[in-house]
Amino acid sequence: MELNLKRPIIFFDLETTGIDIARDRIVEISMVKVMPDGEEIVRTRRINPGMPIPAEATAIHGITDEDVKDCPLFPQIAKSLAQFIEGCDFGGFNSNRFDLPMLVEEFMRAGVDVDFRLRAGLDVDLHKSRFIDVQNIFHKMEQRTLVAAYKFYCGKDLADAHSAEADTLATYEVLKAQLDRYGELQNDVAALAEFSTRAESADFAGRILYNEKGEEVFGFGKYKGRSVAEFFRVEPSYYSWMMNGDFPLYTKKIITEIRCREKNEKQ
């Protein structure tokens, strides 16, 4: 079943130096931009991460320091990449928890302002974008990995697994096959995004979540579920600890806005 699109959707996958969003970097990015008329635009490129690629990462994706030594740094492609994704919805496999936060972090390090809330003057405005995580749909339906999902839904073996382009194209095929298999899935980007989303997060990395009242709460650690604003009032040093810690830049941006909002409300 082909996707019912009202605007372009980008399926994407990243290969990185590791899984720490705050510290690690992208070494390869592949995007399939699917237009409402069905046209598919594929862009794949390698990126010099500006740091050594650990052997354990190379063992997964096969990309070495030698492979990327002459490739551009992310800041060199950030603006053109931002233009390519502007006005699109997004799809991926575990993308809501990893690929999207990692991509946003790279944009912020490059000085590209990204947000999914309505604000003026953004370089990348995602406030109207929908985010479909195919892994979440798969886990809710079948509990498998991408390789197994590709075999289960598409009846094919996934050659070149952990190649960004192969994984990206496979993810796109899996979603279309999921629509064929599950009649209860609505062929609508907004509905698929809602179905594939877990807890709604205030930041991209899921460190700060929204509770049922729409309040920002911690999504990690021993204070999980506790109001961020309330806890900062009681323990202001926790804000400083987070700002000095290895948290993603976007998470730090969110907690700073919460902190400033509380101060302004007291004045």
Largest sheet: 5 strands, mixed
User: Whole-Å distance between the termini?
Assistant: 56 Å
Structural class: alpha/beta
The H-and-E topology, N to C, reads as EEEHHHEHEEEHHHHEEHHH
Shape: globular
Number of helices: 11
Sheet-strand content, in percent, reads 15-25%
Characteristic key phrases:
267 residues, alpha/beta, five-stranded mixed β-sheet, two-stranded parallel ribbon, 43% helix, 15% strand, globular
What does this structure look like?
Helix content is 43%, strand content 15%. With 267 residues, it is α/β, with parallel strands linked by helices. The protein has 11 helices and 9 strands. It is globular, with a radius of gyration of 19 Å. The strands form 3 sheets. A 5-stranded mixed beta sheet has the order 3-2-1-4-7. It has a two-stranded parallel sheet with strand order 5-6.
Outline:
The chain is an alpha/beta fold. The protein is built from eleven helices and nine strands. Strand 8 and strand 9 form a beta hairpin.
